[in-house]
């Protein structure tokens, strides 16, 4: 192993913003700094909602210029969406946004050919109306010779080389999680041509070198390799969970909470499908067995409705509000659309015969109690469905800044919570690059380095766990 420090550019694209982070990694050091942040603003055109992919690529180039000389570049982003290329490798229009309406009613058509239980047994993916599979059935694909998922499309523009990174491919609903290869039977029955996809590649595989034109535009001295990372941002975030051993659960927090386990084999039972758990692929043959929970979206929307009050003050008021007075089902689709969130939470409490939260502090406490309850439910059900007990819950991502939510999650789960790192997706991206270049060992080695170098906070469970069971029973009665 080399003793010197190397620098890696982690391009991390979210649904509302993108950034380029620089990770400096040595045998005993791991530091992350932000080089450039840029907005990701989808555009509503007459034909529907589209990603402004050229603006995103421009942001990546500006970020690489700001990053300075690096030893490698890796890209992760949100899942499921893609760009189509013609036979000359030219982009055919802006990629369609997963919230576009074109997939409405498509799932029912798919299930008429491949029933939902059969689809789950073959691909292990939870139902979401925007899964790539449904997008492809809705897409006319006129003139398309190649399909590249968003991180692979940007990698292609940087290097001229095409590939399909596996962790993101596993969100298409066209991968068999047992073989970690394409599900040819499902694709054939639905008339999807898998030749559209570039060859699969693994996290850590080389993905080409920055093209001369890119070097010129960014001012970087070549050769600069691009490395395939866990290109689905959740795969990168889970790679940066600072756990030891196997007996842990994780919650990747932000607008959504992704709560689950890291397994060595998928859970493809009908009971798992009914509980809406998904089997996505992670690093080193692992499976990310998790559930999507609405997350801090509920609080973000309330804060917006209240005119952006000070969050610290809001959390202090919430800490003083009565615990578990009122709870709502944080996964209820009624909370998905934006707007009127405080009123909708009050309405849900009223409808279930619970006290109606009135003040901002009471509403915030209701949200955080409800999220902790949803975390508890996901962690308990995942353990049962996978027959995989855990001793600790790791919380990573933006929600680690919310100490009250972390403490309530520990109380609800009856397990210690270790919170951190906040920048999990970027750190996981950096670690895969560092590993590909011999600076860290396996997944466990990367996690051990994170534990030594990143600030982590431990929360021990407090209070009576029976109160959470009682609150859960209130939701079940609803």
Overview of the molecule:
It is a single chain. By secondary structure, the protein is of the alpha+beta class. Helices cover 38% and strands 21% of the residues. The protein contains 18 helices and 21 strands. It has helices spanning 53-67, 106-113, 116-123, 132-138, 150-159, 166-169, 184-189, 212-218, 233-239, 270-274, 297-305, 311-320, 341-351, 360-386, 403-413, 424-436, 443-453, 465-477; strands at 6-13, 17-26, 29-39, 43-45, 48-50, 72-76, 82-85, 146-149, 164-165, 175-176, 181-182, 200-201, 206-209, 225-227, 248-253, 257-263, 278-281, 287-293, 392-397, 417-419, 457-459. A 7-stranded mixed sheet has the order 17-18-16-15-19-20-21, with helices on both faces. Strands 3-2-1-6 form a 4-stranded mixed sheet. Helix 15 (403-413) links the parallel strand 19 and strand 20. Helix 14 packs across helix 15. The mean pLDDT is 95.
Short description:
By secondary structure, the chain is an alpha+beta fold.
Mean pLDDT comes to 95
Rg, Cα atoms, Å: 22 Å
Q: Provide the low-confidence segments as ranges.
A: none
Task: Name the overall outline.
Answer: globular
* Backbone structural class: alpha+beta
The end-to-end distance, rounded to whole angstroms, is: 58 Å
Oligomer: single chain
Q: Quick one: biggest sheet? A: 7 strands, mixed
Spatial arrangement of strands, main beta sheet: 17-18-16-15-19-20-21
- What percent of residues are in strands? 15-25%
| Helix percent band | 25-40%
Helical segment count:
18
Tell me the total number of β-strands: 21
């Amino acid at each position: 192993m080399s003793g010197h420090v190397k620098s890696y550019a982690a391009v991390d694209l979210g649904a509302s913003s993108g950034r380029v982070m620089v990770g400096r990694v040595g045998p005993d050091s791991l530091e992350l700094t932000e080089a450039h942040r840029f907005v990701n603003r989808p555009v509503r055109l007459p034909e529907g909602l589209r990603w402004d992919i050229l603006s995103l690529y421009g942001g990546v180039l500006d970020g690489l210029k700001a990053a300075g000389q690096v030893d490698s570049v890796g890209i992760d982003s949100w899942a499921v969406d893609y760009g189509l290329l013609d036979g000359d490798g030219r982009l055919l229009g802006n990629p369609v946004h997963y919230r576009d309406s074109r997939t409405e009613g498509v799932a029912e058509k798919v299930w008429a050919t491949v029933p939902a239980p059969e689809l789950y047994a073959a691909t292990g993916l939870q139902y979401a109306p925007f899964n790539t599979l449904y997008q492809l059935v809705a897409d006319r694909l006129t003139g398309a010779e190649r399909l590249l998922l968003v991180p692979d499309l940007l990698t292609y523009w940087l290097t001229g080389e095409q590939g399909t990174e596996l962790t993101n491919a596993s969100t298409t609903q066209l991968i068999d999680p047992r073989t970690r290869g394409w599900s040819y039977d499902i694709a054939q029955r639905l008339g999807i041509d898998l030749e559209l996809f570039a060859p699969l590649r693994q996290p850590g595989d080389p993905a080409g070198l920055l093209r001369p034109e890119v070097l010129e535009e960014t001012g970087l001295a070549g050769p600069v390799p691009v490395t395939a990372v866990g290109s689905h941002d959740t795969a990168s975030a889970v790679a940066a969970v600072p756990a030891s051993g196997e007996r842990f659960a994780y919650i990747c927090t932000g607008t959504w909470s992704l709560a689950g386990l890291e397994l060595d084999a998928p859970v493809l039972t009908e009971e798992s499908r009914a509980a809406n758990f998904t089997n996505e692929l992670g690093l080193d043959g692992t499976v990310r067995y998790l559930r999507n929970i609405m997350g801090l979206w509920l609080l973000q929307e309330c804060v917006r409705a209240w005119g952006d009050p000070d969050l610290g003050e809001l959390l202090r008021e919430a800490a003083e509000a009565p615990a578990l007075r009122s709870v709502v089902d944080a996964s209820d689709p009624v909370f998905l659309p934006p707007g009127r969130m405080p009123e909708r939470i009050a309405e849900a409490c009223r409808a279930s015969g619970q006290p109606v939260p009135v003040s901002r502090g009471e509403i915030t406490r209701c949200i955080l109690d409800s999220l902790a309850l949803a975390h508890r439910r996901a962690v308990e059900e995942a353990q049962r469905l996978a027959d995989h007990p855990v001793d600790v819950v790791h919380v990573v991502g933006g929600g680690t800044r919310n100490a009250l939510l972390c403490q309530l999650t520990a109380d609800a789960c009856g397990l210690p919570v270790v919170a951190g790192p906040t920048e999990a997706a970027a750190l996981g991206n950096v670690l895969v690059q560092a590993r590909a270049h011999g600076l860290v060992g396996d997944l466990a080695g990367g996690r051990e380095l994170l534990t030594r170098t990143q600030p982590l906070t431990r929360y021990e469970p407090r209070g009576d766990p029976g109160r959470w069971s009682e609150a859960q029973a209130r939701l079940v009665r609803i």
